[in-house]
Write a structure and sequence with these properties.
five-stranded mixed beta sheet; about 425 residues; alpha+beta; Cytochrome p450; binds protoporphyrin IX containing FE; three-stranded antiparallel beta sheet
Length: about 425
């Protein structure tokens, strides 16, 4: 296959199963200019780490939404936010110093190991209630009934959102994430902006209430936070923090990780059997799930100066997309990279959460959610299979993430 004949990763069909394309690229062209995209993709583990470890040379301030719009966000979308709500700032992951320090400084306080340990009984309880809701039913739409609500209810509890409002969250949460996929139409992006504004007004009311009556929740903590120079967050910053950094960054990714984990086990009966026999393997299993089906397939970086990666030279302003999904299957780093391996040394050293300055701030929470979900699943059920006569699972079109549309499973209870 000539280099210019590689299937395009912006093609929704290729996105269903990108791993063969990644492998070919790693072997033949590890820093590859995507046709008609204006950027290169970086697919090897070594090059990905090289870029991620130099955050001042390879900046994060790139907006996928602006790229999808041809360089800058559509004016109609900006107008909707400016006239009816709050124009979102860049997310923590797409912000550079000095703003990054302020936002990350706050977010880090929320997800320390100690705080995640403290939240674990609540996380377990949310998982228990969702599994209990299956009652005696064994045919389950797993994404809709578990993988989606689970992280959403957890983060909503941490934020202090009333349980009765959670049903509305899926619609809003999708509206935040979809424009980042770079696959949504202009009409859909406009619709999403309106939905996000609706969500902003919902949170504006909660913020006003918490200013008067602070509680033990993330919103009250965000209001009380002062950075090292004593600065608090203004409304625009609060909206971005709550809707993008806390809700959007954490929900879809964790949903994706749980859904793909189930799918991987369906494809690997030996791994499923091993977990059913020995649920103590769950913490290793979730790392292999994250490595093999990385929920964030790629993130952008912009060259701050002229730079070389491998044999390719870049000028200031050139764009790179680091493919975590490919680096995590790089044979140069992982033996039998395509296989689930419970014996893998340092199983958590993959790139699914990134590394360096922008490493996922919610990783400890996400890991605990996955451990709670799979431990309870194997505590209750011996095995599961794809439900007969249901559609095969497919991934939603996205250049960024890897979320299953739905996954219909039939669960077999433990005797
Ligand atoms: C399995 C679930 C998750 C995965 C795979 C994941 C993946 C990632 C990755 C790859 C990055 C680094 C981006 C980069 O280097 O450009 C990141 C950053 C981030 N994640 Fe996660 N994430 C997950 C869950 C969460 C959760 C639960 C939260 C919060 C509730 C969260 C909040 C963030 C934030 C705020 C950043 C930006 C950090 C920074 O730029 O300093 N993530 N995540």
């Amino acid at each position: 296959m000539a280099i210019d004949e590689f299937p395009n990763l912006m093609d929704a069909h290729v996105q269903q199963q990108p791993y063969e394309v990644y492998r070919e690229l790693r072997n033949r062209c590890p820093v590859y200019e995507m046709p008609a995209s204006g950027f290169h993709i970086v697919v090897s583990d070594q090059h990905a780490r090289e870029v991620l470890r130099q955050p001042d040379r390879f900046l994060s301030g790139v907006s996928p939404m602006a790229l999808a719009d041809g360089g800058s966000v559509d004016q109609d979308i900006i107008d909707i936010y400016q006239n009816e709500g709050w124009l979102p700032l860049s997310s923590c992951s797409t912000t550079d110093l000095p703003r990054h320090r302020k936002v990350r400084g706050f977010l880090e306080t929320l997800f320390t190991a100690k705080r995640v340990r403290h939240a674990t009984p609540m996380i377990d309880q949310v998982a228990t209630e969702l599994f209990d809701s299956f009652d005696t039913r064994t045919d389950i739409a797993f994404i809709h009934e578990f993988a989606h609500p689970f992280p959403m209810v957890v983060i909503a509890n941490l934020l202090g959102v009333p349980a009765t409002d959670i049903a509305q969250f899926k619609v809003w949460s999708d509206a935040i994430v979809e424009p980042f996929s770079m696959m949504a139409s202009r009409e859909r992006r406009i619709e999403c902006a309106r939905l996000v504004v609706e969500m902003q007004h919902y949170f504006a009311e909660m913020i006003a209430e918490r200013r008067k009556h602070p509680r033990d929740d993330f919103i009250s903590e965000a209001l009380a936070y002062r950075d090292t120079s004593g600065e608090s967050f203004d409304m625009q910053e609060l909206m971005t923090l709550i809707t993008i950094d806390l809700l959007a960054s954490g929900n879809e990714t964790t949903t994706a990780a749980i859904g793909s984990g189930i799918k991987l086990l369906l494809e690997d009966p030996a791994a499923m059997e091993a977990l059913a026999q020995n649920p103590a393997l769950v913490p290793v299993a979730i790392e292999e799930m994250l490595r093999l089906e990385s929920p964030v397939q790629g993130m952008f970086r912009e060259c701050a100066h002229a730079a070389n990666i491998g044999e390719v030279g870049f000028a200031k302003g050139d764009l790179l997309n680091i493919r975590f999904g490919s680096a995590n299957r790089d044979e140069a780093r992982y033996d039998h990279a395509e296989r689930f391996d419970f014996q893998r040394k340092k199983p958590g050293s993959h790139l699914a959460f990134g590394i360096g300055r922008h490493v996922c701030v919610g990783a400890a929470l996400a890991r605990q959610e996955m451990i709670s979900a799979f431990s309870q699943l194997f505590g209750r059920y011996q095995s599961f299979a794809l439900t007969a006569d249901t559609p095969l699972p497919t991934y939603q079109p996205s250049f960024f993430g890897r979320n299953l549309d739905e996954l219909y499973v039939t669960l077999t209870a433990r005797q």
